[in-house]
Amino acid sequence: MGTLLAGGSSITRARIRPPGAVSEISFLAACARCGKCAEICPRGAIKIAHGDDGLGIGTPYIVPQEQYCVLCMKCVEVCSAGALRAVEKPKTRMGVAHIDTDRCIARTDDDCRVCYNNCPYMDKAIKLENRKYPYIDPEFCTGCGKCEHVCIASPVKACTVSPIEE
Ligand code: SF4
Ligand code: SF4
Ligand code: SF4
User: Fold this and answer.
1) Minimal CA–CA distance to 117: which of 104, 128, 130, 101?
2) Which of 33, 92, 118, 162 falls between 20 and 30 A from 23, CA-CA?
3) What would the pLDDT profile of 110-139 be if each residue is shown by its tens digit?
């Protein structure tokens, strides 16, 4: 269930946050902007927002096309502000993947299972329709971003991860 606003609608995070992030409103309040998560991330997956980011300036986020998360949970361990909280890897929900069937090479051109073969939750988060066509099962997708990172569709990826709706 998402964070409900005055009209009953839910909100979507503006960005993909590191694993274990509390709800966006609580996250913006709790994050100390210390940058420790970004420093410890062994993949360099965490970026720090600046510029026109309003209340989010100084907060961490992930851009899967540039680098994905391996769910090592080191960022969660160093976050002493309560912005990132311990979560089991399979229950992590940083975002959710989506495959654009108009762009997916498996459907439009040739055999491709790159996202399927790379997903850490193969046959759960990404399954194959007719043993050929990858599709996402949101129930199991952690939002780690690996599928988007490795998708070979170009110049626009067929597989993309969006921040979760709360
Ligand atoms: S879980 Fe590990 S790989 Fe993922 S963002 Fe945190 S430190 Fe980086
Ligand atoms: S890697 Fe991209 S193009 Fe290949 S099957 Fe997956 S979504 Fe389709
Ligand atoms: S579908 Fe993509 S974002 Fe979801 S768990 Fe698999 S690789 Fe990660």
Assistant:
1) 128
2) 118
3) 899 999 999 999 999 999 999 999 999 999
The residue contributing the CA closest to ligand 3 atom 6 is 119
- Give me the number of domains the chain comprises: 2
Pocket (CB within 6 angstroms of ligand 3) = 97, 119-121, 125-126, 136, 141-147, 161
Residue 1: the pLDDT is: 31
Q: What CATH number should be reported for the domain holding residue 49?
A: 3.30.70.20
Kindly report the three-state secondary structure assignment for every residue of 2-41.
CCECCCCCECECCCECCCCECCHHHHHHHCCCCCHHHHHC
Question: Is residue 39 included in any domain, yes or no?
Answer: yes
**CA–centroid distance, residue 41 to ligand 1 (Å):** 5
Q: Is 159 in the pocket of ligand 2 (CB under 6 A)?
A: yes
Residue at which a domain ends, from 89, 110, 128? 89
Q: Does residue 151 have its Cβ closer than 6 Å to ligand 2?
A: yes
Measured from the Cα of 71, ligand 1's closest atom is 1
Query: Are both 155 and 97 inside the same structural domain?
Result: yes
Full-model pTM: 0.92
Q: Is 18 in the pocket of ligand 1 (CB under 6 A)?
A: yes
Range of the domain at 139: 93-163
Going by C-alpha positions, the residue among 164, 157, 116, 124 that lies closest to residue 3 is 164
For residues 71 and 105, membership in a common domain is answered with no
